[in-house]
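Hi all, posting the design record for the shared folder.

TITLE: backbone redesign
STEP: 1 of 1
STRUCTURE INPUT:
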């Protein structure tokens, strides 16, 4: 296995461990993740119009996603606590699919990447939309949560192709 393919969260004895990032250089690192939540046309129209009974669905979901990006170390055992410098959540509407597309961009000047923070931000944003809309549509589908791109760090840049 090449160095780039080695699993990093295990010690020589195979025990789970937190990666030592103390000697890595601080660099600018950015990760962008995406996902979507599909719903009925009724729920979709209410989200777009801002008429869901619980209030501003996308505004609340945006704040939830940002908060989630800041708390990943409390959720995923081997993630480092990070002082992220940027967390943005953007929404686009897919009228053909009655879906809200979510994109999270997270940045840091640090010794480790923010891929988990961006992925968690998308996940919690989608879950918040679900929570706020479930009275109207319990059958919503959250899907396609994935890393879109990342930059910085020793492993270099990544840009999702196809798939």
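Okay, here is what came back for every position:
SEQUENCE:
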């Amino acid at each position: 296995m090449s160095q780039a393919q080695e699993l990093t969260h295990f010690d020589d004895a195979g025990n789970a461990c937190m990666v030592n990032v103390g000697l890595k250089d601080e660099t600018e690192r950015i990760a962008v993740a995406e996902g979507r939540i599909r719903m009925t046309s009724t729920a979709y129209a209410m989200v777009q119009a801002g008429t869901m009974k619980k209030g501003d669905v996308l505004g609340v979901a945006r704040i939830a996603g940002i908060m989630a990006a800041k708390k990943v170390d409390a959720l995923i055992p081997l993630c480092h606590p990070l002082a992220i410098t940027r967390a943005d959540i953007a929404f686009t509407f897919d009228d053909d699919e009655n879906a809200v597309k979510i994109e999270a961009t997270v940045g840091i000047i640090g010794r480790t990447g923010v891929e988990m923070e961006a992925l968690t931000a998308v996940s919690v944003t989608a879950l918040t939309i679900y929570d706020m809309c479930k009275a109207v549509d319990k059958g919503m589908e959250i899907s396609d949560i994935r890393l879109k791109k990342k930059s910085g760090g020793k492993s270099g840049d990544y840009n999702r192709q196809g798939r």
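COMMENT: The beta strands are 27-38, 86-94, 99-110, 141-151, 158-159.
Let me know if anyone wants the other runs.
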